[in-house]
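pls ignore typos typing on phone
iron/sulfur cluster + seq
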Amino acid sequence: MLNRNTLLAKLLRQFTSLLPVSKSRRGTCVRCGNCCKLPYTCPFLRSDGQGLSRCAAYPIRPSSCRMYPRTEHEHLTEETCGFRFE
Ligand code: SF4
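k done
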């Protein structure tokens, strides 16, 4: 069951993904795939068979995926994500 706040957070990320990424963001994507499960598992999420995630629609992925995590406030996958904010 999807939580209302989680869905609202996803909608907000979709709108704010048109804004610039925070200058304090460091790091890189380590392909954990956890942002592809916010708030439900994306149907385009795949595994490379070696423990890393990949996107089956990568060239045409939406801006919310391209920009994640855009700000520290929107960073919901800190435990596994390769990005951080200083
Ligand atoms: S949570 Fe971070 S490291 Fe994991 S797939 Fe998303 S951007 Fe990449």
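The two ends are 34 Å apart (CA to CA). Helices lie at 4-16, 63-67. more later
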